[in-house]
Amino acid sequence: MEQILANGIYLGAQYAMIALGLTLIFALMNVLNFAHGQMYVLGGFVTYTFYGQLGWPFVLALLASCITLAVLGALIERFLFAPVIRRSSREESTMLLAAGLAFLFDAIILLVFGEKQRGVPKIVDGVFNWDFRLIMPYDRILICILAILSIVSFILFMQYSKTGRALRALAQDRTAAQLMGVNVARYSMIGFALGAMLAGLVGGLLVTITGVNLGMGGPTSIKAFMMVMIGGAGVISGAIAGGIILGFLEAIGLAVLSQYGDITYLLIFVSLMIFLAIRPQGLMGKPWG
Amino acid sequence: MFLLAIFIAVPSFIAAAGRSDLYYTLTAVALLSIASAGVWLTFYIGRINIGQGAFALIGAYVSAILVTKVGMSFWLSLPLSGLFAAGVAIVIGVPILRLRGVYFAMISLVLTQVVTLTALALPVTNGAKGITSIPLPGGVSILGLTLIPDFATLENPRLAFYYAACVLMVLTFGAMYRLVNSRLGHLCRSMQQNEELASSIGVNISYIRVIVFAISSFLGGIGGAMFGSIAQSVYPSSFQVADSVNFMLNCFLGGLGYVFGPMLGTLVLYFGWDLLFELGRFQLLAYSSLLIILMLFLPNGLLSLRLPGKKGADK
């Protein structure tokens, strides 16, 4: 039981971070970022390159992941999403662009890093063992703590900094924010960069445990969509709640249902559909997003 | 004109060029465009549908099971698989069609995953091994008059499949064109713009959107069933999330405002992918870059290029 709870917290913290980036981008620009999983994989590969290949300290490599993805996100917003949103007659067109980007990232990752599974040496050795009731490697605990710390600092940043306030205003009402003197174009870019950075950060954190490979992008995106749907699209607290709920469901399902084979996800999907039929806007979302 | 082109000009051109593998590509385009037409129809009532892969997979499995286990003729199983997919769509559609915008897009994406996982788990679908060696479609004759010859006895089944797929495609798009210009089409357009308003002037929106979703899934089921029959096998991975996304991309690329958009979009995307095969490992890179560039410069779809002329003809 303790083991399941610990696994749930560990999975939930990671998932919440992935969902946060996605929901941030969605709240600001109304863009469903199909490429989010690929950004996460890219972040993992950058950390792999700097930490695993070049032997930089882990923290620096993580920082490199964040910066790479943030710059990439800013460029993508400035030169791809902003013009398309301006020109297109239907806002759904951005979904095509996002799907194209997902393919593009896949192609780039394939060309630059190859299709093999990559891993890096452990950052901390040893396993935490509490009377064989709770077994957890130290590096997982460390990653879990780091993830929770980043979530907390992200929330603080959104609550109290000037940029955070501007971003929240933008998410609430674009026109009103503009009238209050918020530079909409600039903060959209910052928001997208921040969302991409979060994806890169999780990728960098997780490469130390699960490693990283090309095929992880798509499934990660789907999981992130699910979390956002559970919590409600475009709401930060919802993304965190969704991530933690999915993490626990997965941990419990894998422990309880393991003898029936791979039906955990089937059950999660089905219950998600029933849940959404009853409450279409998710736990904390505004009706009709 | 167009009929002449696909039924006479294309086969004779292929015969002249000696590239009979093109038949397979064109057949695939025809079938995928049928499924994409379904997606387009759900766009028409203002829903982003990324779940067509689910219904294509359902259709493919129903047809495969009916043909192999029950021993039914393929031509009978084809409409049945479409109807089955439509039935599933009605059951699922009643709750999930209440969702809108991104929520519907995401749940339909999840739906694809659900069907894939169900196909893996159920015994009748034979798990990950799938159903293989489905017989080719048999003949149909009424009163001794052979309407459709037995595909297995033909010396060129590819050509036969090409014709069958094209006939289906022409029927589909003819029906779509009628539908869009019918009373139902006008009601759909009113829903696309504002559902509350449509419902306040007496349009039964929940009925219409379920009907439209069912038609859309019917088309998906038929496309999938035919595909399964050509490949002579069905696996849970025959139609995946990526395929669902592709169906949606076809519609976007062709242009959401035009009935024939999905056809053109499918043709361009599928052929583009095949042509870029020469580039080897840069295929995906070039393909996705082209997609992004197209989106940057023609965000309203390829058919928007000839917007003025088309608009006059449509209205």
UniProtKB/TrEMBL annotation, chain A:
GO terms for biological process: amino acid transport. Keywords: Amino-acid transport, Cell membrane, Membrane, Transmembrane, Transmembrane helix, Transport. The keyword Chaperone does not apply. Its main location: membrane. InterPro entries: ABC_transp_permease (IPR001851), BCAA_transport_permease (IPR052157). It is found in: Cell membrane. CDD domains: TM_PBP1_LivH_like. One of its GO terms (cellular component) is plasma membrane. The chain crosses the membrane at residues 12-35, 55-76, 96-114, 134-158, 189-212, 224-248, 260-278. GO terms for molecular function: transmembrane transporter activity. It holds the Pfam family BPD_transp_2. It is a multi-pass membrane protein. It comes from the Bacteria. Belongs to the binding-protein-dependent transport system permease family. LivHM subfamily. This is LIV-I protein H. It comes from Ruegeria denitrificans.
From TrEMBL, chain B:
It holds the Pfam family BPD_transp_2. This is Leucine/isoleucine/valine transporter permease subunit. One of its GO terms (cellular component) is plasma membrane. It is found in: Cell membrane. Coiled coil: none annotated. The chain crosses the membrane at residues 26-46, 53-72, 78-97, 104-124, 130-148, 160-180, 207-235, 247-273, 285-305. The keyword S-adenosyl-L-methionine does not apply. InterPro entries: ABC_transp_permease, LivM-like. It is a multi-pass membrane protein.
